[in-house]
Amino acid sequence: MNLVLPILVLAGAIASTYFFCVRPMRRGDCTMVHGRSPGTSRDDHDATSSSFDSDLAEIRQGLALLRQPTEVGGHELDGSLIASLADRVQTDRAIRRQ
């Protein structure tokens, strides 16, 4: 008789985990997987992701310009230091997102 309450609590935890975590993940609606905030639709997320993609493309173009050799005061700078720093920042951001 002492185990009735713990068993009910365990069953509730398992059921809520299934309904609020596992089932949405299997259906593709999980906010943790897609980075959506709760209550937003897929269309809202797609619009946000397309603006993110355009911003990312613009940043990559700027990075490509920074990587091009530049001449300052008669000395040629190859931009490799700037490019390596930008790559490190990009890698750090990718690691943080995971």
Characterization of the model:
It contains four helices and two strands. It is rod-shaped, with a radius of gyration of 24 Å. The chain is 73% helix and 6% strand. Strand 1 and strand 2 form a beta hairpin. The model has no long low-confidence stretch (mean pLDDT 75). It is mainly α. A two-stranded antiparallel sheet has the order 1-2.
Which SSEs are present, and which pair or pack?
Layout: H1 4-27, H2 31-34, H3 42-67, E1 70-72, E2 75-77, H4 80-97
Antiparallel strand pairs: 1-2
In order across it, which strands form the biggest sheet? 1-2
Order of helices and strands: HHHEEH
Mean pLDDT: 75
Structural class: mainly alpha
* Content of β-strand: 5-15%
Helicity level, as a percent range?
Answer: over 70%
Identify low-pLDDT runs.
none
Write down the Rg: 24 Å
Q: Strand count, sense and closure of the main sheet?
A: 2 strands, antiparallel
- What count of helical segments does DSSP give? 4
